[in-house]
Amino acid sequence: MTSPLTSLVSTPPEATLRAAAAWSGHDTRLILAALAGIAVIVLLITKLRAHPFLALAIGSGTLGLVAGMAPQKLIDSFSAGLGSTVAGVGVLIALGAMLGKLLADSGGADEIVDGILRRTGDRALPWAMTLIAVLIGLPMFFEIGLVLLIPVILLVARRSSRPLLLIAVPALAGLSVLHGLVPPHPGPLVAIDTLKADLGLTLGLGLLVAIPTVIVAGPLFARFAARWVEPTPPERLEQEQTPEPEDGERRRPSFGVTVATILLPVVLMLGRAVAEIILPEGGAVRTALEVLGTPLIALLIAVIVAMFTLGRPAGLGRGGVSSTIADSLPPIAGILLIVGAGGGFKQTLVDSGVGKVIGEAAQGANVPVLVLGWLIAVGIRLATGSATVATISAAGIAAPLAAGLSPAHVALLVLAIGAGSLFFSHVNDAGFWLVKEYLGMSVGQTIRTWSIMETIISVVAFCCVLLLGLVV
Fold it and tell me: Is 121 exposed, middle or buried (0-12, 13-18, 19+ CB in 10 A)?
């Protein structure tokens, strides 16, 4: 197996010269096709404000036509990629959304917040907010987690009289890191599917990378951000979010049950990864753990368990649980379309021959695979503003490079791409504007806090990936 850190760096000069000579004989039309497809995606998203689904679909068509694909083959290729990606990832995203909605509607999220804050002193509040964001962010998409946490952030900041950003930045860092690095979030799931990575292994390594990254970009960076900027949240948000309900005590699931339910799919998937390493193949225990740790099964079990552990204690009843699950699906329709179109773009790259050409060129260059994956994701992130689009596109481009890597290094390539997809969020990112408006900051203040925080996340996570690449 090839190490992405050592093999490419140690490429001898004569091998590089041979690769360069071979490259000169390739049809540069394929590279121009890839550049044209990416350029169309970037222009449609940034200039025309087109939906990423349309941008990816049109970009795939541009790529295929410039590469010389027959129209029918192009359509078949895009459709096959879209279908296989939605089939492999779409159900997992839907189950994750159901789990997140049950957590929110049952009051389980509130119980986590209150339970941690009850046990926390003022000095430890930034660390407590980080833990809250990590727990809530595991099953929830970034935007949903942000909307859920904003009232908590504002309430805690006002009651503790601490600077708002000292409370907000750790929570934002926790949500963002999980969104970019840890399944079942859409970007990591698609990258895992595209690169054929082991989900349990990627999840375990992702959590190892996430811990130091969240600490540095969250509580530690928050100390500086709070000195640089003093935002004033919109009054309407504070008035809407801070009052406590006066219509009697609301029933909630207990703190321990809520946390156990959220962590259940994580434990099952990690159990599968551990079983595949330490238990003999074919044994009954390993087989059972492999089945239970399959992402689809693990998330399905978690949703079913949550219906009883979260829904029942909250008094939702059968109708309420059914309504909650139904309400969780419409908001993710756009995400599923984007993810599917990204799969179509990836398949078009492969079937047109572009993926093979890029893979051969990268293997002959003096650039480690992990660095290349990170740089590709950074470039697309800066251009499009979408972490999901950056992850999907970079994974498709880097897919040929994963063929000769060990399972651990394929997982690290997924994490390197995920880290790159979070680099320097700015004005073309919807998350940038969400944070700006919710916290009442100017564009300049948002860049000095949120954008720098995202860059710290990207760089620290990538450094952790490189360090892991030296030891696994």
Answer: exposed
Task: Indicate the helix (H) or strand (E) that contains 414.
Answer: helix 407-420
This prediction has a pTM of 0.75
The Cα 386–Cα 428 span in angstroms is: 8
Helix (H, G, I), strand (E, B) or coil at 283: coil
Contacts of 431 (CB under 8 A, 6+ apart): 142, 143, 146, 176, 387, 425, 450
Cβ(127)–Cβ(162) under 8 Å? Answer: no
Q: Any idea which residue has 């986590």 for tokens? A: 112
Contact 306, 332 (CB under 8 A): no
Q: pLDDT value at position 385?
A: 73
Of 438, 427, 453, the closest CA to residue 151 belongs to 438
- Evaluate whether 174 touches 214 at the Cβ level (below 8 Å): yes
Q: How far apart are CA 146 and CA 368, in angstroms?
A: 35
The Cβ of residue 172 has, within 10 Å, a number of other Cβ atoms equal to 33
Burial 317-329 (b: 16+ CB within 10 A, else e): eeeebeebbeebe
CA–CA dist 421, 178 (Å, integer):
12
Task: Give the CA distances from residue 410 to residues 269, 371, 395, in Å, rounded to whole numbers and listed in that order.
Answer: 17, 13, 11
Q: For residues 55 and 41, is the Cβ–Cβ distance under 8 A?
A: yes
Per residue in 262-308, pLDDT tens? 888 888 888 887 887 788 888 899 999 989 988 889 889 999 999 99
Tokens of 264: 């259940």
Q: Give 66-90 pLDDT, tens digit per residue.
A: 988 999 999 999 999 888 878 877 8
**What contacts 228, CB < 8 A, 6 or more positions away?**
448, 449
Question: How far apart are the C-alpha atoms of 181 and 202, rounded to whole Å?
Answer: 9
Tell me the torsion sign for CA atoms 392, 93, 142, 254: negative
Residue 467 tokens read as 């360090």
Quick one: how far is CA 313 from the chain centroid? 31
User: Partners of 405 in the beta sheet?
Assistant: 2
- Per DSSP, 88 falls in state I
Give 465-470 contacts, CB < 8 A, sequence gap 24+. Answer: 465/209, 465/370, 465/374, 465/412, 465/415, 465/416, 465/419, 466/5, 466/370, 468/205, 468/208, 468/209, 468/412, 469/3, 469/4, 469/5, 469/370, 469/409, 469/412, 470/5
